[in-house]
Amino acid sequence: MKKLFIILAIVIAVAGALLWQRYGGLLRLYPAPVASPTIDISGLRVPDGFQLSVLRSGLMNARVLQKDTLGNFWVSQPSEGLVTLVEMENGEAVRAQPVFAGLRDPHGLAFDPDDQFLLYIGEEHRVSRVRVYSEDELVRLVDLPYGSGHHTRTIGIGPDDMLYVSVGSSCNVCNESDARRATIMRSAKDGGGAAVYAKGLRNAVFFTWRNDGKMFATEMGRDLLGDDIPPDEIDIIAQGENYGWPICYGKNIHDTEFDKNTYVRNPCMEPFETPSFIDIPAHSAPLGLAFIPANSAWPREYWNDLLVAYHGSWNRSVPTGYKIVRYDFDARGNYTGQVEDFMTGFLQPDGTVIGRPVDILVEPDGSAYVSDDYAGAIYKVEYRSGLSF
Asked: What's residue 315's pLDDT?
């Protein structure tokens, strides 16, 4: 028996060494997140004129944010199996109370525009809904594939009054056996008629709609092609389109490392595949995105712009991401090509990680709320005219 254990130990050690050699340090991980009741934000930076504060801390693995009609916040905590209510009084978060517990990786949250007390919750294996501030139980609406790979399910109700849910791939790169994987699905709000809306999206963790009805999504590219490819993406989502994964990425680039087939022409060119709208540096891990409304209390130069949270790399030799950036759009909704940092400091100069931004909730009053699943916090960023640091 002792010899057997020795042999097993040797096999495990050799396998680990081979993995490390094959993937060039892929297994390097950052310290596990710890939700602290007090958070030092002195290392975080926002532009002049904006003020940063901690709305609430102690929320382990805080991910998706929603604000209800009473002004309270709801936050999903997938690793804890919780959806938590953060109660507000006079602009302050006075208490945080888990309301739904024992869930399976709850992530997506969305309130029904036609009934502001009806909350939709996306778990790994299903979408349900429930009336908040009541004794009602969750009602299952849509069954989803689960069990491997990307497990977050983000949901939203579109301008067409339909329910959307993103379903990530089961792998880094592969041909899926379940056509619902690597897609955004759509159904009626009661779950009826659920079907694939757009495909070829490896992991479109977050999406949103602009005021003209266009749907935008962030997408994470595959791993194990090095530090600089493939790019992560911002895509404009349209019904029936194929965004390329697993054989294409970015601006119609063919992934020949995975797809060894020979083609007469590039299989990634339109009309077969839809290119990315904006390429993002590889491994930035883009998550939440939100447009800043025009005619709001935000500075005029911010109107119509897009804020995107870069969660940050985990397998790049030089870490990247760990910030919120601002993409500049003109008054007609055209991307100008300009991008600049909006909230930084989550990755300190010495390489210390103090946070990882996830979701962004923009308010017309010149404020934004940001969740951080590493520090377990919700931040408030607010514009104060004439303020400088």
From this structure: 87
